């Protein structure tokens, strides 16, 4: 990313929402379940699996949490009724009251997981900023015993604690997503050098695979994809022992290359009305988008 793009990315929150929305469209399936279902079917035709995310985070009240639980329970039912192929669901615990009361969040997850288990499906717990890491892993620790094989966490290579977390979590059967981590964290707890984040991603991945974990390798970074392929080959893993994961709207060519080479690949498909926070994160990490957005802004002015 050029210095100019980096500087412009910081100014994104000042851009009028209608302009941002125009650029955010590529990352979001639409506002309704039907939009997401259409995308999932089209991905399936291309050989990809999906994980659905209802946009929205940080619920503060019991009523909001209740609405989120209901939305996720309904989503699992619709995925089942509509027979969406190879589709699971990703949830954010702050939408389920993590920062309000852990017991409330645990109860919410139990209800979602009861439905997911009944329908033979799986819940991925997205990882949010570092204030959520310990409580999220604690809740996962409880849920994995109650719903074995139905729930998995996310680890972020950016965090200094992640290698320890990976070793501890993989002492039991584990289905985990590994990503770099999108939230900017202080140097005291996170690596800030992109090269070290990459090196840590590879090290954590190696440790997880050698300990038998099923890993969702979530990256569009071709260097990391290469490292992952190297490890898969070294450990002699068959294609059903790991999967690649990518975000909807990012690097479809790499997606096709990996599927064409016989690897499993799952696409993260967000949909819903609350598009803003998610889109801002995606636009910020697009190496060119800040430039596009600002040029559009000037054309408008
Ligand atoms: P990097 O950001 O270096 O991108 C590599 C290349 O991919 C770029 O050079 C560019 O070509 C392309 N690219 C990346 N992002 C783009 C964009 N937005 N638009 C256009 N091109 C882009 N994080 C987190 O903290 N918690 C979580 O739970 C998750 N969950 C998650 C699920 C899945 C399926 C994925 C793929 C990612 C996440 N992430 C996440 C996000 C992750 O932490 C990370 O921020 C992004 O994947 C970008 O990092 P890369 O590894 O792709 O490298």
Continuous helix count = 12
Low-confidence stretches: none
Please trace the helix and strand order, writing H or E for each element. HHHEHEHEHEEHEHEHEHEHH
Instruction: Report helical residue fraction.
Output: 40-55%
What is the approximate shape?
globular
- Report the end-to-end length measured between terminal Cα atoms: 26 Å
Sheet with most strands: 9 strands, parallel
Q: Going across the biggest sheet, name each strand in turn.
A: 4-3-2-1-9-8-7-6-5
Percentage of residues in strands = 5-15%
| Structural class category | alpha/beta
Mean pLDDT over the residues: 93
The number of E-state strands comes to 9
Bound molecules: dihydroflavine-adenine dinucleotide
Q: What does the radius of gyration come to?
A: 19 Å
3D structure, described in words:
- The protein is built from twelve helices and nine strands.
- With 301 residues, the chain is α/β, with parallel strands linked by helices.
- A nine-stranded parallel beta sheet has the order 4-3-2-1-9-8-7-6-5.
- β5, α7 and β6 form a beta-alpha-beta unit.
- The longest helix is centred in the N-terminal third of the chain and has 20 residues.
- The model has no long low-confidence stretch (mean pLDDT 93).
- The chain binds dihydroflavine-adenine dinucleotide (FDA).
- The site of dihydroflavine-adenine dinucleotide has 24 residues, from β5, β6, β8 and α11.
């Amino acid at each position: 990313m050029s210095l100019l793009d980096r500087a412009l990315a910081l100014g994104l929150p000042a851009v009028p929402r209608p302009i941002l929305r125009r650029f955010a469209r590529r990352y979001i399936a639409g506002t309704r379940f039907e939009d997401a279902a259409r995308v999932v079917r089209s991905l399936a035709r291309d050989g990809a699996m999906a994980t659905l995310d209802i946009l929205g985070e940080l619920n503060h009240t019991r009523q909001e949490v209740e609405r989120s639980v209901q939305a996720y329970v309904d989503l699992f039912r619709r995925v089942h009724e509509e027979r969406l192929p190879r589709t699971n669901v990703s949830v954010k615990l702050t939408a389920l009251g993590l920062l309000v009361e852990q017991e409330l969040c645990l109860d919410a997850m139990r209800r979602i997981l009861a439905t997911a288990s009944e329908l033979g499906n799986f819940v991925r717990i997205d990882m949010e900023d570092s204030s959520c890491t310990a409580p999220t892993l604690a809740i996962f620790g409880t849920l994995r015993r109650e719903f074995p094989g139905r729930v998995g966490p996310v680890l972020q290579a950016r965090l200094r604690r992640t290698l320890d977390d990976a070793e501890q979590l993989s002492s039991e059967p584990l289905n985990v997503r590994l990503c770099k981590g999108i939230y900017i964290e202080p140097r005291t707890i996170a690596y800030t050098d992109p090269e070290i984040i990459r090196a840590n991603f590879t090290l954590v991945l190696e440790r997880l695979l050698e300990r038998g974990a099923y890993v969702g390798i979530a990256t569009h970074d071709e260097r990391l994809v290469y490292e992952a392929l190297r490890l898969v080959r070294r450990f002699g893993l068959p294609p059903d022992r790991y999967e690649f994961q990518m975000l909807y709207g990012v690097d479809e060519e790499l997606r096709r290359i990996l599927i064409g080479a016989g690897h499993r690949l799952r696409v993260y498909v967000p949909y819903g009305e609350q598009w803003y926070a998610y889109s801002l994160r995606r636009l910020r990490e697009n190496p060119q988008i800040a430039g596009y957005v600002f040029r559009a802004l000037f054309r408008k002015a």
